[in-house]
Design goal:
By secondary structure, this protein is mainly beta. Helix content is 14%, strand content 52%. It has a single domain, classed as Domain of unknown function DUF5300 (Immunoglobulin-like), CATH 2.60.40.2890. Keywords: Signal.
Length: 121
């Protein structure tokens, strides 16, 4: 009986993730001195691409990147263009068998670097 109760508890606790679409929540914060343009966030499989024309300085965007059709292992990629025309790309994190290992990722773009933080809910 204790095993049955333990199984029910484990299933109940994990059921929150059973109905959630495969993917990752993301937030991109522009903490640099100027606007950034041509912002793209995607996985290395490049199946779904979240695109934003621009993010003004001291502003942010948030969304969900669906990974329902991803099947391989890979990482996440953020691309953008700085005001001086310099294109930048940051690859980070890891997903396996098309599934995200994290619930969310936050990119903070500074004038000379990009900070990346992953987490779960």
């Amino acid at each position: 009986m204790k095993k049955v109760i333990a199984i029910v508890v484990v299933l109940a606790l994990s059921s929150c993730n059973l109905f959630k679409e495969n993917g990752i929540d993301f937030k991109i914060v522009n903490s640099s001195e100027s606007q950034i343009t041509d912002v793209k966030f995607y996985t290395t499989e490049k199946i779904q691409i979240a695109e934003f024309d621009k993010i003004e300085r001291n502003k942010s965007v948030s969304d969900f990147l669906s990974m329902k059709d991803n099947q391989a292992d890979g990482e996440y990629v953020l691309e953008f263009t700085r005001a001086n025309g310099k294109k930048e790309s940051s690859a980070a994190g890891y997903y396996t068998n098309g599934g995200s290992l994290n619930g969310w990722v936050r990119f903070e773009i500074k004038s000379d670097t990009t900070f990346i933080k992953f987490g779960n809910y």
